[in-house]
Amino acid sequence: MDSFDPSASSLGKDVDPAVMHELLQIRSSIDNFDATLVYVLAERFRATQRVGVLKAEHRLPPADPTRESMQIARLRRLAEEAHLDPAFAEKFLTFIIDEVIRHHQAISDGTAPLPVTPGSADADTRA
Ligand SMILES: O=C(O)C(=O)C[C@]1(C(=O)O)C=C[C@@H](O)C=C1
């Protein structure tokens, strides 16, 4: 794995050390949130991969617009409750779903690469 330097910055050397200290503390939380996002997204794509296989096996269309409308309306409500911009929540979900639909299409076309699972021959075994 490539090394991650949490203190790497382009802000220059003139930043007040106390400000830099506070910034690095906040960035440490941001790094944890970013890692969580990756894990959450990986699990979501693992689930949608199963949906893609199921849909392909039963010749169902990749997209389900009615389901998507429900998901978007729900996420917009949750975003409002959480004080997150609902337009951003919708854009983010739509971005993910569009990618899922591309994956579903590729599974049904037979052009999808095999999912890389730990221990499989395709898995990246580099340290
Ligand atoms: O639930 C489905 O039918 C899916 O294919 C999953 C999913 C999603 O990513 O949530 C993706 C595409 C569909 O249009 C709706 C939802």
Care to describe what's here?
- There is one protein chain.
- It contains 3 helices and no strands.
- With 127 residues, it is mostly helical.
- The chain has a single domain (17-109), classed as Chorismate Mutase Domain, subunit A, CATH 1.20.59.10.
- The radius of gyration is 20 Å and the shape is flat.
- The model has no long low-confidence stretch (mean pLDDT 92).
- Residues 17-108 form the Chorismate mutase domain.
- Pfam families: CM_2 (PF01817).
- Keywords: Isomerase.
- This is Chorismate mutase domain-containing protein.
Write the layout of secondary structure elements.
Layout lengths: L16 H41 L7 H17 L4 H24 L18
Helix pairs in contact: 1-3, 2-3
The protein binds prephenic acid (PRE).
Protein name: Chorismate mutase domain-containing protein
Pfam family, one: CM_2
Keywords: Isomerase
